Amino acid sequence: ALPKQFETIIGKIQNVSYPARQGATSEVVFLHTDQGKYVCKRSSLPQYKTWLLEEAKVMKELNTNTSLPIPTFYDYMEDEGNSYLLMSMEEGVPLREALLAVKTNEEQVKLIQSFGAKLKKLHETSLPPEWQHQISWLDIQLKKAAYNLQHYEVDGNPQLLDSLLEQKPRA
């Protein structure tokens, strides 16, 4: 069941569909309305709910402070067991699928160059002021990894984290 408040934002949902593959951290639903197509991501486990909230904050901040071509943030909400992120549905094909579909090396090169140009734009985009920290991004990620290692079932282990901390590049 989807939050009813979403219909006040996107209109009456005519039907729903699902992507061919689901991720491991959230369920993705495509919502079809008279106003267009939208995506709703739902997470129910505590760790993934935290990640979805972070994704919502990042998306909202990037929509407001950059011109990056990302989905439009519409809403984020939580109920007793789930977190939901509502965003626009952007048409497109994953790069992997596009590369498999083309016939020639030249077409593959063009796709990779196009992806590279978009990645370049991403890297040239200035950080929103709220994201500029005294502590480095890598240090923040390593602190998150340590927290996740202590509080959740993760793929890593203490030895891997220690190795990453010891081999961390200097700024």
Helical percentage: 40-55%
Radius of gyration: 19 Å
Widest sheet: strand ordering:
1-2-3-5-4
How many DSSP-defined strands? Answer: 5
The biggest beta sheet reads:
5 strands, antiparallel
> What would you call the shape?
globular
Reading the helices and strands in chain order gives HEEEHEEHHHH
Mean pLDDT: 91
Helix count from the secondary structure assignment: 6
Task: Give the distance, in angstroms, between the N- and C-terminal Cα atoms.
Answer: 47 Å
Quickly give the structural class.
alpha+beta
Low-pLDDT ranges: none
In what range is the share of β-strand residues? 15-25%
Structure, explained:
The structure is a single chain. It contains six helices and five strands, in the order αβββαββαααα. It is globular, with a radius of gyration of 19 Å. The mean pLDDT is 91. α5 runs antiparallel to α6 (158-166). The protein has helices at 5-10, 46-65, 95-101, 105-124, 137-151, 158-166, and strands at residues 13-17, 27-33, 36-43, 73-78, 83-88. Strands 1-2-3-5-4 form a five-stranded antiparallel beta sheet. It is 45% helix and 19% strand. It is an alpha+beta fold and 171 residues long.
